[in-house]
User: Fold this.
Amino acid sequence: MKKQKILVIGNGMVGHHYVDQLAAKNLPVEITVIGGETRPAYDRVHLSDFFAGRKPEELALTTRDYYRDIGVQAHFGDPVVRIERENRKVITVAGQVFHYDKLVLATGSYPFVPPIPGADLPGCLTYRTIDDLGEIRAEAKSSKIGVVVGGGLLGLEAANALKNLGLETHVVEFAPQLMGVQLDSGGGEMLRRKIDALGVKVHTGKATKTIKKGSQTRLSMNFADGESLDTDLIVFSAGIRPYDQLAHDADLKVGERGGFEIDFNCRTRDTNIFAIGECASFGNRIFGLVAPGYRMAEAAISQLTDEPIPFQGADMSTKLKLLGVDVGSIGDAISKTPGSIAYTFSDQREDVYKRLIVSKDNKYILGAVLVGDCSDYDGLLQYYLNKIELPENPESLILPATSNSTPLIGASALPDAAIICSCHNVSKGAIINALDAGCCSLGDVKTATAASTGCGGCAALLKNVIDGELSARGMEVNSAICEHFNHSRQELFDILRSKEIRTFHQLLDEHGQGHGCDVCKPAIGSMLASLWNDHILDNSLVGLQDTNDIYLGNMQKDGTYSVVPRVPGGEITPEKLIVLGEVARDFDLYTKITGGQRVDLFGAQLHELPSIWQRLVNAGFETGHAYGKAMRTVKSCVGSSWCRYGVQDSVGMAIRVEERYRGLRSPHKIKLAVSGCTRECAEAQSKDVGIIATEHGWNLYLCGNGGMRPRHADLFATDLDDETLIKYIDRFMMFYVRTADKLQRTSVWLENMEGGLDYLKTVIIEDKLGIGEELERQMNYLVDTYQCEWKTTLENPEKLKRFRHFVNEEIGDDQLSYIYERGQRRPATAAEREQRKSTLSNNTISITELSGRG
Amino acid sequence: MAQENWAFVCDADDLVPDTGACVLINNEQVAIFWESKTDTLFALSNYDPLGCANVISRGILGSLGDDLVIASPLYKQHFSLATGQCMEDAQYCLKTYQVRRIDGRVQLLLEENITR
Ligand code: SRM
Ligand SMILES: Cc1cc2nc3c(=O)[nH]c(=O)nc-3n(C[C@H](O)[C@H](O)[C@H](O)COP(=O)(O)OP(=O)(O)OC[C@H]3O[C@@H](n4cnc5c(N)ncnc54)[C@H](O)[C@@H]3O)c2cc1C
Ligand code: SF4
Ligand code: FES
Assistant:
């Protein structure tokens, strides 16, 4: 069968979604996409993260390679200028011609710049693309004052960006209030107060008449009321207009507010031409959000299959944090519906405003406005979307929580059709299906359904649904760590802490059963270490230690050990390097530089460990905890002391944090890195804690991971001074130690955290749980009680007794066998051992026979 | 009745509660464990047939259901302390030895015909 040629114009968020979803369907089609921008689709919703340090590549939703791999032809940077419907072809600026069987318009929209004289002067900018933001950043460097024209959602986002760029920031709004589309006047007023309080100056009811070159500043704005405002740059955010110019030549219909007019199949009046996303007009409405665009893309794709699904409009409710202020708007927020009843709650002390709009009969929610506190948003939205009947006194839904108030609506009461994640259109039913198919954690469900991987706003609700479903199945959230304890790691941690239990036996007697095992013992050993920091080889603790910890070395495949001394920040003196070399030579240890900027010495037998470590400790080395689920290494680049680009002393900081956190035992290993500038030579963004120098201090990244499932760390806070940096890391690490599951890296811990990164910020930066100081105190206790585990062991003859292969003979394991390769030894493979056995009459080969070779 | 041949292998205080130690007897490496909750000693071959190394004495003691077990430190298979049976793979079974503690001395029962 001949393949249908599908041509997509525009490679924004919706165009990309269309291509990606269509390619996954394996239909007999040939897909071509023409993107007007020079780069493939990126995440416009998170565009502002660009200013927080997210690079364009990190915002990317796709790449040229990915398109090639899925068989999509893609062309970028050459916009289409004309559609010839009769010939079914399009022509680009550069004159390229593309033919189609079906054409999909996904051209999005552009910022509307009001026709004010002077609006085209240098310094007048818009906020829509990565290139726009690059220009704003460049322009801001030489600016002191910035004005945003437009007090809507995007305008306030732009204002936030200008403020973060260090500019004195103003918002100029034509209408009498902010966010007139989403908020009623009371909500708008509360928002204005809060934003004023943040130092952003809001001017409402102001019409800009002209823009001129300024005398002191670059620009000067004159308003209709005769006032003026001096500024260096202006960002226009006065609404969006669909890119629908292609309609005119092609004689396609446009809606009243512009946009290619479409029916519920997302078709224009030409049945071969679809339009989706922000360039489409459905019922004379433009949907300026990404989720409705995705629904259109899916509806348009379904028209190519036997199971067409219609596009039925979309909900425009939104929840945002604007300049740090929580704002939510649901449905008919400005009570347009005739006969509707409104309930309003306003608290001027806490600066919270809530308004609920309900139907005439007081039964259903029609809309809601929330400013200053969005905690009720999810619940109210579910009432609204699913037309759930309201309780008798609907106002109780927005009144402040009393001591024993319950959540608005239990997740279990929601119908299966309830949409839990609107970004990815995931219903409660789809989540239940994922659980049926074997998912059993938040992380699993996210991967399987994509729920909560968009804006993240649905995270709390998603978790409630999953927990509710799991416990309804009785497979409850079985977080018991093993058959010996009916408790999760976090619960055990709290028990140990509050009851000050210091031994496994006491915990087992009071809270467990059986004898313990290789799962609970190391986990509890680790918790006891994080709490009390006693020496792990003390008699009451030694039996809890895992394979490596129990002999303070990493066991290798043949039962020998590796030796990894700490090399803080990777900085090492020549004298110390020589000692490492001498020790390795004298004990014939295989020597390798590790991926963690230190040196690993392999092949030490149990009885050799004490003598090896005695020499290392004498030379000033400490244990590197390579054997523990503990703080491992702090990698660093050379930084400002030598590097011509360095802006801070990364080595100094690396050593400081390594010496602070050395020995800290945790649910899984923790790695850190410090880079001296944004070139990031220490690869800090792949670490649990990444620190990157800026001109003003340090940017802190958290919860990165290399290893099996790599994850880039998230930018957590910017431009911190040394003390704040340490404070945040203290709190972060102890919070992780307290609440993570056993063997859960920080990356997975964060992914499973209800509320995600934002929640983590409220705990660590805003100290919402009020435990900040306690976490710091615990960390200080651990820092103060630190001991080098090897040094203490060497000072204690009883402990050293265990470091013998045989307790009744002074020799080592006599059945080891090695091969010399590239000048060093390695364990012989099974085949090599066999071969040895047959060539030598003696059937055991001792290590002494072999040493000296190579 | 044949005379039982118990050989001294180490002092009781060479053992640490809830851990193992390895002794060499008649060219065999034997792992001895002291389970403290029941105050019982167990002895098994020190060779891990799955990991192919002499390391059993360095594993973690515990219980699975009603069985007392030792988890190999290499790949964590469990072996019954009483019978040596591998719980994950029926084809593997560690040799077990009789062991006792008398007057602070730990002894192993040797097979009739071998002497130290
Ligand atoms: C020695 C070293 C490889 C080397 O020759 O360079 C190494 C060796 C081991 N790694 Fe690693 N890792 C080493 C750097 C890394 C790195 C790179 C880094 O740290 O910059 C990674 C990826 C980064 C990360 O962790 O996010 C790494 C990711 C892993 C993982 C996967 C962790 C994950 O979250 O996916 C494991 C398995 C685990 O921990 O469960 C692992 C486990 C191991 C173990 C412990 C495996 C084992 O159980 O025996 C190896 C034993 C080390 C030994 O015997 O001394 N190793 N390992 C490196 C020691 C660094 C050091 O100085 O301490
Ligand atoms: C700062 C900011 C924050 C936002 N925050 C949110 C949010 O929190 N939640 C939310 O739901 N939405 C948000 N949005 C809106 C969201 O980004 C849009 O709804 C979404 O990007 C629309 O996707 P689209 O593909 O229709 O259009 P676009 O993403 O604009 O993509 C259209 C693409 O088509 C290209 N194009 C145009 N004409 C042509 C042509 N003739 N030939 C070839 N290519 C052409 C354009 O250059 C563009 O690359 C935000 C937008 C911005 C700017
Ligand atoms: S990260 Fe920057 S300071 Fe550090 S070595 Fe690289 S370029 Fe130099
Ligand atoms: S609603 Fe945006 S990620 Fe789920």
Q: What stands out?
A: DSSP finds no helices and twelve strands in chain B. Residues A 9-15, 34-37, 44-45, 47-48, 79-80, 106-109, 127-128, 154, 157, 243, 246, 277-278, 288-291, 293, 455 surround flavin-adenine dinucleotide (ligand 2) (CB under 6 Å).
